[in-house]
Every structure is written in C-alpha cells, then in structure tokens.
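ok trying this again, last paste got cut off
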Amino acid sequence: MGPMEVDQDLAQELLSEFSFRRELPGRAQPENTIEVQLPLLRYFFPEARILPLGLSPTKEGISIGSRCAELILEKGMKALVLGSTDLTHYGPGYGFCPKGPATKAEPWVRQVLDRAVIEKMLEMDPESVLLEGLRQKKRLLSRGRCFSLSLSENSRSHKGPTRLLWHQ
C-alpha cells in the first residue's frame, strides 16, 4: 500500500516543546499497534498525514496530547484521533497471577480490571485513566491511551458519544 506521510510541521512544533526520542524510517523499533493501524489508515484515508507517537502513560503524555490538540485547532486542521492499547498484563511473565492460571482468570481480568479503565476512558478523562492505571500498579501498560484522550478531550471538536469499538 505504500508509506504514509508524517506531518513534519506538527512533529517539529511538538519536538521544539517536548523531549522525544525520534525514530527515523528504517530504524524504528517494531510497534505492533501502528503495524495494524497503518494499512487501515492508508486504505481509508490515502491522502492523510500521520503523527505517530508512542508515549508513556504519564502527566507529560497528557500534556503532549493537550498541546497537540491546541496546535491542530490553531492550524484549522481536520484530525482523526486513534488510540489503541493493551490493557491488563496477566500471567507469570508479568509477575501478576492473583487469580491463578490465565484461563481461569480471564473473566475477572476482562470484567473487573479492564472494565474499570475502559469506563474511565469512555468518560474522556485522561487524569482518571492515568490514576486507574497507577491504582492497578501499572499492570495496564499503555502508550497512547492518555495522550489520545487528552487530545480528544481538549480538541473541542469531539462530536458524538465516545464508543468502545472492541474489547477482547
């Protein structure tokens, strides 16, 4: 399908205000989220420019999302915000198995732990999402969640209900 153009102007403005580790094409670390999303974006929005960011779930990530929303509004840009995240990391590899084997724990993980943070996401409150992740002792490892919420919350162009498209 071919590459997608990065919005260099927006990237440069954020780079001038925040500290990032910049990854160049051909030397970027593998990122399974963007590997899934890019072909879909390219297919449905072939002329779109992208701004891929992998950020830790911190207050700085929220600040970056807020500033990005401000820049988008200032420039009169149209923007689509996509966020994708892993939720609870369960199992011996993560040092977290309070309910036994993953096969037995899966309903509890999905209906209790994951659901708690999903509810915060649907409220469009990035601070609450961050606090819920900390409450769960960082078992919710996300890079884009707080950024995407803060960008959407602050864009004032968010229209319609926030929807959960899928949770497995």
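PB: full thing came through this time. The helical segments are 8-17, 32-44, 59-74, 102-122, 126-135, 145-154.
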